[in-house]
Structures are given as C-alpha cells and as structure tokens.
What we know:
Helix content: 25-40%
GO molecular function: hydrolase activity; lyase activity; metal ion binding; RNA binding; RNA endonuclease activity
Region (Disordered): 1-117
Pfam families: XendoU (PF09412)
Largest sheet: 4 strands, mixed
InterPro entries: ENDOU, EndoU-like, EndoU_C
Low-confidence stretches: 1-20, 22-104, 106-111
Cofactor: Mn(2+)
Structural class: alpha+beta
Distance between the termini: 41 Å
Radius of gyration: 20 Å
Number of strands: 16
Amino acid sequence: MEGLIKGLIDVALGGDRDDGEDAPRTQSPPREEQRSRATWAEVVSSGHHEEAEEERPSSYRYDQSPWSSRKDEISHPHDQSSWSSTKEGSVEKSDGDWEVVGKNKRHHRSPRRHQMAPTDTWHRYKVPPSEQEYIDDADYGLDVKPTREELDDLTKACSRLWELDLNRLVPGKDYEIDCGEGKKVYQEGDRASGNLFSWLSDDTLRRPTYSRFCSLLDNYNPNEGCKEVITSQEMHEQVAFIEEISRTAPIKYLYKYLVYKGVISDDFEEFKRMMISLWFDLYGRGGGSGCSSAFEHVFVGEIKGRGGNKVAGFHNWIQFYLEEAKGRVDYQGYIFPKRRGHSPDSETQLLTIQFEWNGVLKSLSSSLVGVSPEFEVALYTLCFFVGGEDNHVYLGPYSVNIKCYRFGNKIGSAFPIAEC
C-alpha cells in the first residue's frame, strides 16, 4: 500500500498458429445486432497457442510531455473513502480521470510507478471526427516513399517500417520489464514472482496515437461468440484512431507502398475508409455472427471455448500492460527460445510468454513490446495485402515470422513469432 500511495503521489507531481485461432466462419451482419455487455465477472467466472484523453496542443512532438505537470489528476492519496477492495488484496481507485490498481503479485523489485490510461480524455474521442483535434503530420519530414528494393522485398519493407517508428518506446528509458524465469510451453506453474511490467513512463499513454488506441480497448465483449454492437460514439473512436495514425510515418509509408504496388488507388481518404473497414468491420467467429473483428482479436483478445477455457489473439503489449495493472493478467514466465543462449531480458522487444487472463490460460503467446500502435497496424496490414500466411522478415535486430491468417478480405489473425 505504501508503495502504491507513493506511486500516486509521483504521478500527481510530475510454428504455428495460436492455439484455437479459428478462422472466422460467417459474414458480418448489420452493426445493429445486439450484444451482451456483460461485466468481466460475468464474462469469465471460471477459471496451445498462437505460437507457433484534457486539452491537447494542436501540435504534439513525441519527445515532449505537455501534461507532465498536471496535479489535478488524482485526489489526495489518503482519501480512503474512495478506495475499494479487489481480489487478492489489491486495491482500486477511480476518480474519473485515472484508474489505479494495486499489483496482485509479490515483487522482489521496487516498481517506480504504475500508470493507467487517462480516461478523462476519452470522452472527447466519442464526438464526430470533424469536431476532434489531431496532431500535425508526425512524419517529421522523413522520406516515406518506398524504394524499388523495398517494393520487391517484403523483408526490406518491414525493416523500413521499423526504422520509421519514431513513436517506439526505449527500454529502460520509457518502461521496464522483468521477464522472470523461463519454462517450456507444457510446463505447469508460475515461473514469474512479479508482473512483467515494472513501470511505464508518465507520458506514454497520453501520446495521441497511444491514447486513442487505449480508448478502443473497452469497446468489446471478449467472450467469443457474443454478438457485438458498435455504438455511434464507438464508431467515432474508430474513425478518429485511423485519422490520427494516418498522420504518422508508418501509415504514410504503408499507403504509398500499397499505391505503388497497385493494391489500392491513389486516394488517401479512400485508403482511410479501407483501413476502418479492414480493422473494425464485424464478422463471425466460433459459430457466432457479428461477434469479432480484426482489431478485437489481434489487439484486445478473446476468450473462447465452452465455459471460456482458452485465450485467443491478445498480441498487444499495451493491452497486456493495462490488464496486468488491473489484476486481470497473471504473467507466468517466458517460453524458452528455440536457441540456447537467447533468453530475453529487460531490453528485449519481442517476447514469447505464458499468462492467464481472468483465470484462463494462454500457454503460448508472442508480442512485440514498446512498439507504437501505428507500427503494428501498418505491419500487419502490409503483410495482409502483399504477404502470405508466413512472412519471414527482420524487424530491427529480430528475425520474425509474421503470421497472417485471412478470412476473405478481412484479417482473421496476425501476430509475430520469434525465429530464434
């Protein structure tokens, strides 16, 4: 408790497919179909992979933090009346702007702080896109035109995307992870004494594309087969997210690449509409109709199987961080790499891990860590349009297979697999 209160004060001051990754089976019904907006307790009451938002200046630079001096975000840490107990001894507080949840695992380190998503900003994302404010073009004058070599070689194109991700976080500077101990995928038991994430820098989730990404994560019922209804406000969030990331270098590069390859027409507005449809249109999965989308599956995650006994998708590090902070994710260790001597550490940005989500085990999962939302969207979209099911590429120092499963003209699933 003492550590948590101190953290609040600090903030105030300053080869193979995912197990069970079934391809969707039915076409998308009208968006008006009803879904069950069950609480998490209702969605999951019980307890092998996919390896194999406050005013913002009109111009934002990612190396600045215009919100770092906010002192009105959190009420006094000693105001015990606003706290409530949660499971396993953690405590939760919600004051309208921030939600902070104590960690539910013992730590042998002293985490700096535990930042949660700034929900005060999200209501501004629910208005029509024309009424919203966006960052200025965030390509910083970089050349986002693909070369002939990149057009002929997907590996070189993906490497260029990695270089263009100016919004990627720096391990040790922007966040810290503790991988704990390793295990083989079939081994039972928790090999991690603490959380995967030790801390995240104060401004990270206030970066425009990160914040808009976070606002989308609570729009879904993760119970596979449960029909979704996307409200008009949630549709505004989707359009605004695509508009925001379309101002960044990775998405601009993606656009030019697809135009030069003849995949799409040279119409940027039409491209953005295509991206909204590709990532957010609903389709069927697990026998249900209108119950899933590429965004929900890849980034949010779904719980499938009778009785909710398997986690599918869930390949995004931001979602993992937030769910772990709320006590919904229990990190259980990394999976031993294929080659000896290549175990992950605090600097690693491609992880293969095991965890439980609301008591449901995901025995094998892989994610990129610290990369920006725009980078992942660009990467998986690029592989979907010009790659195949297996896409052997290099992302910085990492040799990766980007698995991309299709459902007609939609993304069924997409995720990285470390190749060494």
